[in-house]
Design a protein that fits this description.
Number of strands: 10
Strand order of the largest sheet: 2-3-8-5-7-6
Order of helices and strands: HHEHEEHEEHEEHEHEHEHHHHHHHHH
Strand content: 15-25%
Helix content: 40-55%
Largest sheet: 6 strands, mixed, barrel
Structural class: alpha+beta
Shape: elongated
Number of domains: 2
Length: 413
C-alpha cells in the first residue's frame, strides 16, 4: 500500500485530539447520506408516479389514433386493414367520440360519450379489466346500453339496471322548431380505472348506437391502435401518416398528453437540482473539516515534508481522507435510499396511519397510492454526482496543506 493511502486512512480512523473535527466529519457523512437517499427516493417515486399515470391513461387512451383530417372517417375498414399490416400494430378498433349530457331525474352531468365495439375495445384498452359491475360485453347494438365511470355513476345516482337520458348537442328539426336529440339508455355496467378524469367524465355505448344517435351513418370518429411498444408510438404514427395520405391524421399518446408528461419531466429535473443542493451543502462541509484538520496537523505535515514527502503526496493524503468521507456517505445514502424506495408502499401507509391523514387524494393526484420505480441510471447518476462533489471539495484544503512551509510549522514545536 502506498504510504499516502495508508496515512490518509489512518487519519480517518484515528481518534483525534480535536473532537470537533470528528463531529464535523460525521455530520458531513450524514449530510451526504441523507441527501443521496432523499434524491434517490424522490426520483424513484416520480418515476413510479409517471409509470402509474401513464399506464392508467393508456388503459383508456390508445397508443395511436387515426382520425379523418376533415371530419368523420368514412372508409374506416380500409384504414384498419392497412394499419394492421404494420408490424408493430397489435390490434385496431373503431370508435365514436362525442359530447353529451346525462340526466337522471333532476341531476345532469356532462360527459364524453365513446361508441365502441366491446370485443374490439378489449384488444386496445383495459377498461374491461376495471369493471366494478356488469361487463363491457353487455353493450349490444340496438339495445341502447351504457357503461358509466364510477364517479359519474355516483354523481348521477345510477346503478346497473337504472335508466339515464343521453342528450346529444346535435339538434333535430321538427315542426315545433329545433329540439335536441335525446335517447334513454339502460346502465349495464360501471368501470373504475383509477383516474378521476375518466371515472367522472366518460360513458361508453355501443358503436352502432352512437352512430345512430349522432347521425354519423356508417362513419366513425376514428380508429384506435395498440402497439407492441408504447414508446414507438411517435414513429409508428409518422409512418402511418405517410402511408395513409393527407385524408387521415395520426396522433400518438405523447402528442395527446404532451403537456402533462412534459410537466412531469420538468418537475423531475427541478426536484433533482434542488435536492442535489443538499448533497452539495454536505460536500462543502468537507472543506471546513479538512481546513481545520490541516491546521491541526501542520506539524505532522512538516515532518512528512522533512522526511522527503513531495507536495503531491501531501495533496493525495488529504484528498484520500476527504474522498473517503464522500464514499462512506454516498454508499450509506445509496443503500438507505434504494431500500426505502423499494419499501415506500409499506412505509408511507404506516406514516399515514400514524398521522391520521392521506398524502394523496385521488381527485387531485389521479392515484391514491404512492408508487416507486428504482431506475439504475438514476442511482448511478446520483452516486456519481455525490462523489464528484465530495472529491471537488477536497481540492482546496489539500492544496493548502501542500503549501505549508515545514520551517514555519516546526518553529514553535
Amino acid at each position: 500500500m502506498r504510504y499516502e493511502l495508508l496515512v490518509g486512512l489512518r487519519y480517518t480512523r484515528a481518534r483525534r485530539r480535536n473532537h470537533f473535527i470528528s463531529f464535523i466529519s460525521l455530520t458531513s457523512m450524514a449530510g451526504i447520506a441523507l441527501g443521496v437517499a432523499a434524491l434517490i427516493v424522490v426520483l424513484s417515486v416520480m418515476n413510479g408516479f409517471q409509470r402509474e399515470v401513464r399506464a392508467r391513461i393508456l388503459g383508456v387512451v390508445s397508443h395511436v389514433e387515426l382520425r379523418g383530417a376533415l371530419g368523420p372517417l368514412a372508409d374506416w375498414q380500409a384504414v384498419i386493414a392497412q394499419a394492421e399490416r404494420h408490424p408493430r400494430v397489435l390490434a385496431a378498433a373503431p370508435f365514436v367520440n362525442a359530447q353529451g349530457l346525462l340526466s337522471t331525474g333532476q341531476t345532469v352531468r356532462g360527459s364524453l360519450v365513446r361508441g365502441v365495439v366491446p370485443q374490439d375495445e378489449d384488444r386496445v384498452a383495459d377498461i374491461g379489466r376495471h369493471m366494478r359491475a356488469g361487463q363491457l360485453a353487455a353493450l349490444r347494438p340496438g339495445e341502447f346500453g351504457i357503461v358509466l365511470g364510477a364517479d359519474l355513476a355516483r354523481a348521477l345516482g345510477a346503478l346497473p339496471g337504472d335508466r339515464v337520458v343521453l342528450i346529444a348537442p346535435q339538434g333535430q328539426v321538427t315542426p315545433a322548431g329545433l329540439v335536441p336529440r335525446l335517447r334513454q339508455f339502460t346502465v349495464v355496467g360501471i368501470f373504475e380505472v383509477g383516474m378521476f378524469e375518466y371515472d367522472a367524465g366518460l360513458a361508453l355505448v355501443h358503436l352502432e348506437d352512437a352512430q345512430r344517435l349522432y347521425q354519423l351513418g356508417e362513419a366513425v370518429s376514428g380508429v384506435r391502435l395498440k402497439l407492441d411498444d408504447l414508446f414507438a408510438a411517435r414513429e409508428v404514427a409518422a409512418e402511418l401518416r405517410a402511408a395513409l395520405g393527407p385524408a387521415v391524421f395520426a396522433a400518438d399518446w405523447t402528442r395527446s398528453h404532451a403537456n402533462y408528461f412534459r410537466a412531469v419531466e420538468i418537475e423531475k429535473r427541478m426536484m433533482a437540482i434542488i435536492l442535489t443542493l443538499i448533497v452539495a451543502v454536505a460536500a462543502f462541509n468537507i472543506v471546513s473539516t479538512l481546513v481545520m484538520l490541516v491546521t491541526d496537523k501542520q506539524a505532522d505535515i512538516a515532518i512528512l515534508r522533512t522526511l522527503g514527502a513531495s507536495p503531491a503526496s501531501v495533496v493525495a493524503i488529504f484528498m484520500i481522507q476527504g474522498s473517503l468521507i464522500g464514499v462512506i456517505g454516498t454508499a450509506a445514502g445509496v443503500a438507505g435510499g434504494v431500500l426505502l424506495a423499494w419499501n415506500v408502499d409499506v412505509v408511507v401507509p404506516a406514516i399515514e396511519r400514524l398521522l391520521g391523514f392521506k398524502f394523496l387524494a385521488k381527485d387531485v393526484y389521479y392515484i391514491s397510492d404512492l408508487p416507486s420505480e428504482v431506475q439504475a441510471g438514476d442511482v448511478v447518476t446520483v452516486a456519481a454526482t455525490a462523489l464528484a462533489l465530495a472529491f471537488a471539495a477536497t481540492v482546496y484544503p489539500s492544496l493548502r496543506a501542500a503549501r505549508i512551509n515545514p520551517a514555519e510549522a516546526l518553529r514553535y514545536e
